[in-house]
Design a protein that fits this description.
Blueprint (H helix, E strand, L loop, with lengths): L1 H14 L5 H6 L6 H13 L1 H11 L1 H4 L5 H12 L8 H9 L1 H15 L23 E5 L6 H10 L3 E5 L3 H5 L5 E4 L6 E4 L9 H4 L3 E3 L6 H6 L6 E4 L6 H10 L4 E6 L2 H13 L5 E5 L15 E6 L21 H18 L7 E6 L8 H11 L3 E3 L21 E3 L1 H4 L4 E8 L14 H8 L21
Helix pairs in contact: 1-3, 1-6, 3-6, 4-6, 4-8, 6-7, 15-16
Keywords: Acetylation, Methyltransferase, Nucleus, Phosphoprotein, RNA-binding, rRNA processing, S-adenosyl-L-methionine, Transferase
Main location: nucleus
GO molecular function: RNA binding; rRNA (cytosine-C5-)-methyltransferase activity
Amino acid sequence: MALYRAAAAVLSGLERGEGGLKGLVYGSGFPHARRLYALVAETLRYGPVLDALLDGAALLRVEKKLPPPLAKVLVYDLLFGKGLKCGGRWKALARRHRARLQAELARLKVRRGVSRDEDLLLPAPGAGPQATQVPRYVRVNVLKTCVDDVVEFFKRQGYSFLGKAGSLEELRTLSGKKFILDLHFPELLVFPPQTDFHDNRLYTSGHIILQDKASCLPAFLLSPAASSHVIDACAAPGNKTSHLAAILKNKGHIFAFDLDTKRLATMNTMLMRAGVTSCKLAQQDFLTVDPHDPKYSKVKYILLDPSCSGSGMVARLPLEEAAPSTERLQALAGFQRKVLSHALRFPAVQRLAYSTCSVYREENEDVVHAVLQEQGSAFRLVSAFPSWPCRGLATFPGAECCLRASPADTLTQGFFVAILERCGEEAALPSSLPAGTEESLQQEEGMEPGAAPPKKKRRKKQCVK
């Protein structure tokens, strides 16, 4: 029963705007964070369906003492999950209403003209952009395997491989047991939205990482050079850290910080499973780290993904009928400005990726603009990933250098990324450019695709203050 109570508490926290899904799960103290995250995420994904079932079966009117968040997780596991794993009165209550709930589920399928549970998750005709289904993204962990081997594994499991995607539309129309190679990231496989790999042995062995495409942007665009020293300032639960390690091929050194003991313990387990050996974890508030400590004297790259509202998480969209309070956004933005300014104080840092899973300008463009003004001419925004379709909101000159992501426009979680570089240094493009980016840059320079760049001319970037 502890799992369901913890899941209900996370759902309640989301409804009250107390934080994002990831933060509430890892801050809950529940010992099996991965199980809790999966249950809450799936309950949220089925949220509108569960609301319809609870209403149609009149469960909450009959069982007045049953809290709605607890009702949702119980009914999810009863009808769509792996079956109730609890005892006591709540299990007895759920089973007492099983027949009524199953009958209501059958009626709902008839009304919507579908035959499978998963089809109830499809957007209704005329639904707005929030109803867009985000595919299941799978990052191949190159520290343990390679893309070709993972593709062959899934083909042996009965999946059909469609090759490399040429457009977002090909990702949008994936269905059944089909998968495709992402059009932007060379190590990212894409499956239909309902695909679940939590029990797949490639996942449990660390050969694949379940990571949203937008979440892959910060490490990919930071693109630390071989053998670099890198800081991951707010690291748990560790997906981006493992991505950095993969880019570095376990060479160099990653300093990863997080204040929460349980989150760090979970992260340590995840990194060990992923074969990461180049990372040193520290239970420490990044704001208390001394930038002038000699151990960080070689840190040239920083990845900063601080706490945010989590408003870009697709799983939260059904609950986001009202924006977070102004006071909460101001408090988050104040913290984000403070931690970004602190990161830029490290004397050797040359390149920094700032990201959030928020849709609000207060946490994104406004934070970056304020810190750039504070820094004067010391740092500039880099126009990263020119072929990425969504750019920053035009709230200040140069904001279009930033990247945004959304379910409707990029088929990802809502996300924001800004890449900052120290002025006066040679601006380095990412060492591994996404497919099509080199051609895009060559066209910007007026060159023929595939032509070698002039030897004596260097591309200049203008500082954005």
